[in-house]
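Hey, resending since the last one bounced:
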Amino acid sequence: MKDSKNNEIHQRVIVGLDIGHSKVKMGFTFSDEPEKRHHILFPTVTMGYFEASNDETREKNLQDTVLHPNGKKYLFGDSAYAQTKNDTFVGLEDDWIESPEHDVLILGAWKKLQDNLAELKVNPKEFIFGLGLPAQFFVRQREPLKDRFTALIAPLLKEGQKVYFTIKSQSELPLNCLALTEEGFLSTDYDLGKEGWGVIDVGHGTTDFALFFEQQFLHAHSASCGGGKIVHEKVKEDLTNIIPVGVNGVVEKVVEKKPFLHKQTVSDFSSYVDEAALKLQELVIENAKKVFKLHNPLLSGILVVGGGRDLVFNALKESGFTVKKLPKIDSRLVIMESLIRAGLFLAHTGKYKTQNNVYSIEAVKTAK
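The structure tokens again:
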């Protein structure tokens, strides 16, 4: 690592931004310190700003407040989550990337990133962002997301700063964690030029499927279906008269099978989760058969990732699929980590300045 007095330190930031349907997962590193990670997670919740009567709450709200180009102020993340009820996540509509709520999450992520960089006392000149979209929406939403991201970030850049960014289909991304090392270099452990792999990404809103065979993704063998939200809603329905499901975080804890204090006793509601997961398992197995059935014997494995991985993994295995988990990586953060590794690879090779599918944003010049 370079001396902290050197102005060249940490001038290029690599960011993976996964705006999920229940959590925004953002991680960043520096091209001159690629082995390190800084993680920023917050709930996918937004609401209109309000002046809290309590000084402590007001101060905390200000940390989670952004101004939208429409002139309105919004709360996002933890502060918004604390003020809503019933786990009110945004973004469960197909066209949500063109909504003010999605804009607010992008602005909120940028604010959190800048706050973290300020704490680290670095002032980078270049940012390489990676963004993802569900497979079923990728072709239709890539251009709208590119335009909105550019319009939101450009006015926030300081003079001399520049952002480069890519938008990828999320179902294809996890293979980056095989093809590339943590530092963003080509891995010697896997040879994707000779291996075939499948991917199942079980998110909150959708589950995405992808097949990589003979050095390419076979788009005719991609698919999407419902995600962890199916289990979440079933558990909520079944436990409505048993536990206070309207309290934020309660259903989430039950679904994740975390210890849950109910009536002064640690209660186990895992049987409800197992029952609720059956519908999701049925859907995932049905789609997996369509996508992988012919190629399954020829694959090195099918990576199962995402926050809902453990809800379906054993069921897939029992159905005869060669499912595998990525070691040493939190399954909820695989998309984010994959975007970081891809960004590091672009930084090391310098391709982020020349590739056609890498977009760039410069600071908006103001009239003098």
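The radius of gyration is 21 Å.

Sorry for the duplicate.
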